[in-house]
Each structure stands twice: as structure tokens, then as C-alpha cells.
UniProtKB/TrEMBL annotation:
<feature type="transmembrane region" description="Helical">
    <location>
        <begin position="301"/>
        <end position="321"/>
    </location>
</feature>
<keyword id="KW-0472">Membrane</keyword>
<dbReference type="InterPro" id="IPR006667">
    <property type="entry name" value="SLC41_membr_dom"/>
</dbReference>
<keyword id="KW-0129">CBS domain</keyword>
<feature type="transmembrane region" description="Helical">
    <location>
        <begin position="440"/>
        <end position="463"/>
    </location>
</feature>
<keyword id="KW-0812">Transmembrane</keyword>
<dbReference type="InterPro" id="IPR006669">
    <property type="entry name" value="MgtE_transporter"/>
</dbReference>
<keyword id="KW-0479">Metal-binding</keyword>
<keyword id="KW-1003">Cell membrane</keyword>
<feature type="transmembrane region" description="Helical">
    <location>
        <begin position="375"/>
        <end position="396"/>
    </location>
</feature>
<keyword id="KW-0813">Transport</keyword>
<dbReference type="InterPro" id="IPR038076">
    <property type="entry name" value="MgtE_N_sf"/>
</dbReference>
<dbReference type="InterPro" id="IPR046342">
    <property type="entry name" value="CBS_dom_sf"/>
</dbReference>
<dbReference type="Pfam" id="PF03448">
    <property type="entry name" value="MgtE_N"/>
</dbReference>
<comment type="function">
    <text>Acts as a magnesium transporter.</text>
</comment>
<keyword id="KW-1133">Transmembrane helix</keyword>
<comment type="subunit">
    <text>Homodimer.</text>
</comment>
Length: 467
């Protein structure tokens, strides 16, 4: 065991992209692949974790990746597939034969198998399923039937149960049999004779209890369970809130049909966070570094066009005050200050509100608290920034009225930014639209339009004091 850990540690040092030896190591791999020197390659990969091998793939050509992949054991192949980025996985699976894919699936749990098969074209997927045993094929088909991004799609069907009427001795026998098929057992789920979930027993409690004790006496009936159609984001929030390591998944009748473990939830948290960050910038959540250029352009151009439309609206407001700007040219240099600060303040409010929606801290029951708080922050920030803006412009330009106009416009726009920034995500959530998709675009457009309107409107009213 110590030797294996040492080899794994040494390999990770070799594939550290910041190290001076990384490029040399990759070149050695490439040379050995070109020479088809399998013994040399196996020696270089000795102790490598499948996830670390996938890291190497990023600097190899597809044919080189496949050659290296086929040198791995079926078990390591399975885990390397699971660790690949989605787009890499999809194209990689196209290159593998039905037989090669089928052999890897025996070494992973059903949730991971379902994940891999979801990236196959339907025809090839059917061929792979036909290669599996009838039991495995049936279970995976049924899991693929659950809604995407739901607990049913996320769960593993590998779990251990005992019947509430049994004693500990029988329960231990059942768990030992099941342990041969399950990678990790955190909890033993307790069911009645019909398979309906009753509670759970921590693994250590089962083995430390006298063997003639009834299961019912050591069962914890406060069990966490999710209906199979619950959204994966809700699952992740519940795991985080209650520090869960495992939770059951049940059907409409309350029968246990699977379990979700904390490692699955960690992946969800990363996916959801990445998705929200990308969507807030108007970028598809599927985009990766490996995404083809034209595909990236196609995905981004829609929201850029929306931005263009809102920019035309802002320019229309400015055009309405062309006469004022032509008379008082200094206004053109000050306009970006009001609009820019308003946009930044709106983005701050949007980010805070969306985060609280995502974590479950903000819902329709307490939405007014969020709006009221952001409004108060907008007023205070507006007073502070309005005062600073007034002082700086008065000192630089020596015009008291100009300072008051810009300072007042700043104050009003900060309030608008906070209100819109807090309300837009809530309204989108109410309309069942992901708040991360369009909030920032609408907020920025609103603060630009309002900022220009208030600033130039006030400047027009007090124009004779500004010349």
C-alpha cells in the first residue's frame, strides 16, 4: 500500500503542468506511443490514478489518447471515462467499439454507467445494453427513463438493505453479500417486507450490536430520502444543510430504489456553480476550452445580439438629448461614470440575490427582505458615491450645479440598480426561468438607460447654469 501511494505521488509530480519536467514527460509518452513501446508506457503509467491519466490526454492527439487508454485495465478505463470532460467524453465514446465500452461498465456503479450511456447515440447505446446482463440492462434502462438532472438519474442502484423484522445476524449476512457489489457502504437502509423505507442503521452499529438483537431496536427512523423526481440542485442543498454523506431515493410508494452519496453531490455543486457563472456572462453552460470555435460563436452570438439591442435603446436615450450634449460638451465625458457605477452596483445585487436563490436562503416567502435590504444598501451607497462624485466634479470643474447634477443622478441610479438587481432574478424565478441566464443583461441595460436619462434630463433642466 505504501509503495502504491509513493508511485501515485511520483506520477502526480510528473504531470504537474507548472513543473519544468512536464513537457519532457509528455514528449516521452508521445515518443513511446509512436514507437508502440507498450512496456515503456506501462512503466511510465505505473501508479497513475485514472483521473491523472485523463490530465495527460489534454496534450495528446486523439489517436494517442486512444492508444494510451487501451493500455489501461478495464477498471481504470471505466474511471478515466467518468473523469473526462463532457465534450471529450462524447467524442471519445464515438471512437470506442461497443465491446470496449461494455467491458468497462462492469467496474462502475449504475449511476456512473447511466451517465456514460447518456452520451452515446441511441443506436450504439442499445447495442451496449444488449451486451450487458439482463438484470443490469433492465436497471440501467429504467434509470435512463428518469428525468435528466433529477435524483432518479443521479442515484446509484447499488445499496444495502435489511428488513426491519430480521435480527442483526441476518442483517450482517445480507450486508456481507451486498458488499461484494458495492464500492462504499455508509448506511444500511431498513425496509419493511414490501420494500418501503423505514429508517437506517450506521454500518458500525450493525456490526457492534449483539447478533440476536432485532433490527427494529437499533433503527434510526429519522432517515433522509428523496423522491426520484426531485431536482438535483435541491438534493445538493439538502446534503449541504444537513451534512449528509448518503441519502435514499424512493418511488411513489415510498419504496427505496437507490441511494445518492456525497461524491455525487460534490460534482453537482461544481456543475451548478459553473453553469451559473457562465450563464451570467451569457455563455452556454456546455462550453469548454475544447469546444470548437464556430460552436462557441453560435452559442454566444444570441446574447451578444440581445446586448446589442439594449445598447441601441441606451443610445436612443442619449440621442434624445443631443442638443443638450452639443451645448455642454463636458457631459459626454461624465456620462460613463453614472452608467458604469450603476451597472456595477446592479451586478453586485444580482450576484448576491442569485447566490441566495441557489443556496435556498431566498424564496418567495422572504423575497421582500432581500429587496428591502438591497434598496437600503442602494440608498446608502448612493448617498456616499453621490457625495464623493459631487465633491470631485466641483473641485475639478469648479461648477457647483454640474456637481449637483452628476451627484444626484448617481444617487438615483444607485437606488435603481439595487432595486432592479434584486427584483429581476426574483421575477425570473417566478416565471420559472433560470435567474442566471439573463439577469445581468437586463440589469445593465436598465441602469444604462436610467443613468443616461436622469443625468442628461437633469442637465437639460439646469442647462443655463452649466454653460
Amino acid at each position: 500500500m505504501e509503495e502504491e501511494r509513493k508511485k501515485e505521488s511520483e506520477f502526480r509530480i510528473k504531470i504537474d503542468r507548472e513543473s519544468d519536467s512536464y513537457d519532457d514527460f509528455v514528449n516521452q509518452i508521445k515518443s513511446s506511443i509512436e514507437a508502440k513501446d507498450q512496456s515503456s508506457l506501462k512503466s511510465m503509467l505505473d501508479g497513475a490514478h485514472p483521473a491523472d491519466v485523463v490530465t495527460l490526454f489534454k496534450d495528446l492527439e486523439r489517436e494517442e489518447e486512444l492508444y494510451l487508454f487501451r493500455l489501461l485495465s478495464n477498471e481504470d478505463q471505466a474511471y478515466s471515462l467518468v473523469k473526462m470532460e463532457e465534450e471529450t467524453l462524447e467524442s471519445f465514446l464515438e471512437e470506442l467499439s461497443v465491446d470496449e465500452i461494455s467491458k468497462t461498465l462492469d467496474h462502475i456503479e449504475t449511476d456512473e454507467t447511466t451517465y456514460l450511456l447518456s452520451y452515446l447515440p441511441s443506436a450504439k447505446r442499445e447495442l451496449v445494453l444488449a451486451n450487458l446482463s439482463k438484470t443490469d440492462s433492465f436497471e440501467i434502462r429504467s434509470q435512463l427513463g428518469f428525468r435528466e438532472y433529477s435524483a432518479g438519474r443521479l442515484m446509484s442502484k447499488d445499496f444495502a438493505t435489511v428488513t426491519i423484522t430480521d435480527n442483526v445476524r441476518k442483517g450482517i449476512i445480507n450486508v456481507r453479500k451486498k458488499a461484494k457489489e458495492i464500492e462504499d457502504i455508509y448506511q444500511i437502509y431498513v425496509t419493511n417486507e414490501d420494500g418501503v423505507l423505514e429508517g437506517f442503521i450506521p454500518l458500525k452499529d450493525l456490526f457492534l450490536t449483539p447478533i440476536n438483537t432485532k433490527i427494529a431496536k437499533i433503527t434510526n427512523f429519522s432517515v433522509f430520502a428523496f423522491h426520484y423526481d426531485v431536482d438535483q440542485e435541491e438534493v445538493a442543498n439538502t446534503f449541504k444543510k444537513y451534512d449528509l454523506v448518503s441519502a435514499a431515493v424512493t418511488d411513489d410508494l415510498g419504496r427505496i430504489i437507490g441511494r445518492i452519496t456525497v461524491d455525487d453531490v460534490l460534482e453537482i455543486v461544481e456543475e451548478e456553480a459553473s453553469e451559473d457563472i457562465l450563464l451570467m456572462a451569457g455563455v452556454s453552460e456546455d462550453e469548454r476550452l475544447s469546444t470548437p470555435i464556430l460552436q462557441s460563436v453560435k452559442r454566444r452570438i444570441i446574447w451578444l445580439n440581445v446586448n446589442l439591442l439594449t445598447a441601441f435603446v441606451s443610445s436612443t436615450v442619449v440621442a434624445f438629448f443631443e442638443d443638450t450634449i452639443s451645448q455642454i460638451v463636458v457631459l459626454a465625458t461624465l456620462m460613463p461614470i453614472v452608467a458604469g457605477l450603476g451597472g456595477n452596483a446592479g451586478t453586485q445585487s444580482v450576484t448576491v440575490v442569485i447566490r441566495n436563490i441557489a443556496t435556498g436562503d431566498l424564496s418567495f416567502s422572504n423575497w421582500w427582505d432581500a429587496v428591502r435590504k438591497e434598496f437600503t444598501i442602494g440608498v446608502l451607497n448612493g448617498l456616499a458615491l453621490g457625495t464623493v462624485t459631487f465633491s470631485m466634479i466641483y473641485l475639478v470643474k469648479g461648477n457647483l450645479t454640474l456637481g449637483l447634477v452628476v451627484g444626484t443622478a448617481m444617487f438615483v441610479n444607485m437606488i435603481v440598480a439595487s432595486l432592479v438587481g434584486s427584483l429581476v432574478p426574483i421575477i425570473l424565478k417566478w416565471m420559472k426561468i433560470d435567474p442566471a441566464i439573463a439577469s445581468s443583461i437586463f440589469v445593465t441595460a436598465t441602469t444604462d438607460v436610467c443613468g443616461f436619462f436622469f443625468f442628461l434630463g437633469l442637465a437639460t433642466i439646469f442647462a443655463k447654469y452649466l454653460v
